[in-house]
Structure formats: C-alpha cells, structure tokens
Amino acid sequence: MIEFYTLGVYNSTEDEFFGKLTENGIDTFCDIRQRRGVRGAKYSFVNSQRLQTKLADLGIRYDHILALAPTKEIRELQKKADAQSGVLKRDRTQLGEVFQIAYKDKVLKNFDLDDLLKQLENAGAKKVVLFCVEECHRACHRSIVADEIEGKYGLNVTHL
Question: What does the pLDDT look like over 35-56, one tens digit per residue?
Fold first, then answer.
C-alpha cells in the first residue's frame, strides 16, 4: 500500500527540504505545479532541472503531474481573494472557498486518481510526496488532492 505525504518549500532551507524527503523514505516525488520554477535565489533548488538532478542523486523518482495543477484562471481567483484580504501568497494559511470550488470542479473532477494510483503502484512507489510551494498545506491545492485521496481510498496523508 502506498503512503502519501505533502510538502511545500516556503520557509525551508535546501537541507531541510531534502532532509524531509530522505528522513521519510520518499521514493516518488510528484510535482503538481503548473510552472515548475520559483523566482529568486532563495528557493532555486526547487526549479525543475535542479530539483530533478538532486532527486535523481537521492534515488527519488520525479513525476510532473500537470493535470493536477490549477489553471491560471483558478490561480487568479485565489490571487483576488488574497488581495481582498490583504494576505501575501507566501503568508496564506488557507485557500479561499472560490478557489476550492473551482479547483474541484475544473481540475480534480476531471482527473483520474484511480489511474494515478495504478501508475504509482506499477512503478513500485511506496512513499509518495505531492509537492507545491506553499508552506502550509491548507494554503495549497495539494491539500485538496490529499483530502480526496484520504476520502476516496481511506489512506492517511502526512503533511511534512
């Protein structure tokens, strides 16, 4: 049976970030971002090519699951909600309801989680992390995916 985890990068150092992966025995890294880059030097270690190289060095399989990424339009809904509440993306602790509804309706409803689990099992995955950038999992779409996995399959998801 596969164990699922979620992980963000904000407020982590490179050593802390990769330490969480190795300490928890993660063997498969699922990047569910649409844009696989972060501006600035502070988090450049999670920019796609550098991230994939480091994961390969650690023996961790990398998958980019673009179909689980929120669309630009859905991200704009959250951006507006953040602006209305005066919260910066990096400081957000929870997703807005409008984002959650749109993400579930336009992304998650059309995604085949059964197929993803089958692909992960066929690849021999045992410990899988869902990755996006926000520090707090409730401030990120990965929490919606995690909730769906927990509800649909009865699996516990650990938030690192």
Answer: 887 777 899 999 999 999 999 9
Sheet of 3-7, strands arranged across: 61-64, 28-31, 127-131, 3-7, 157-159
Q: 160, exposed or middle or buried, with CB in 10 Å at 0-12, 13-18, 19+?
A: middle
Q: How many CB atoms lie within 10 A of CB 97?
A: 10
Extract long-range pairs of 144-150: CB within 8 Å, 24+ residues apart. 144/95, 144/100, 144/103, 144/104, 144/108, 145/32, 145/68, 145/108, 146/4, 146/6, 148/108, 148/113, 149/4, 149/113
Cα Dmax for the chain:
45
Classified by CATH at the fold level, domain 3-159 comes out as Protein-Tyrosine Phosphatase; Chain A (3.90.190)
- Where do the structural domains in the chain lie, given as residue ranges? 3-159
Residue where the block lists tokens 């920019």: 47
The model's pTM is 0.92
Rounded-to-integer distance, Cα 98 and Cα 70, Å: 13
